[in-house]
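[Meeting: bench + compute handoff]

Bench side (C.D.) handed over the final construct sequence. Compute side (W.E.) agreed to return the predicted structure before the next meeting so the bench team could plan truncations. Sequence as handed over:
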Amino acid sequence: MQLPDVLWQDVDLAEAKSLRQAFGGFATGVAIVTCLDEQQQPVGLTINSFSSVSLDPALVLWSLVNHSPSRQVFESAEYFAINILGADQQDIGLNFAKPIADKFQHGMWNIEHAKAPVLEGCVVQFICKNEKQIEAGDHQIFLGKIEQCRHSNQRPLLFCKGQFNEWPQYKEVS
């Protein structure tokens, strides 16, 4: 079998744009992380820095750039939710990636009676207790202990090389 020609490009690790492009070669899911601020108002933003950590105890992590205006809100929140987006939720993901007001007018959100806002129609909803934060370079890593989890058979939204994509031949596995 003949492999296609691959054009390799060395990355200057001191050049942030080039390194960011290299990081972007890893396809990820897309999620919106949410919490409630001290006045019980919803706060949220789009992330692709989500990862599972442990099954026992059930732990996940995500990261946030240090200069984010939402950083202090997430640091002081007791809970946060990770809402993993479905393929049909690209517009919601784009809106939560922007510094706009009224983000929660996009999508159907369960905010009342929730520890953190959860999005209806997404692939997975995790409600997590904010366990620990770790400074790491220019980001803050948030470690959460999962208290509730729901998942669906929705097709996931993917992000790779600066673009949203769908999983081309996704099949639900039992």
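W.E. noted at the follow-up: DSSP finds three helices and twelve strands in the chain. C.D. will use this when planning the next construct.
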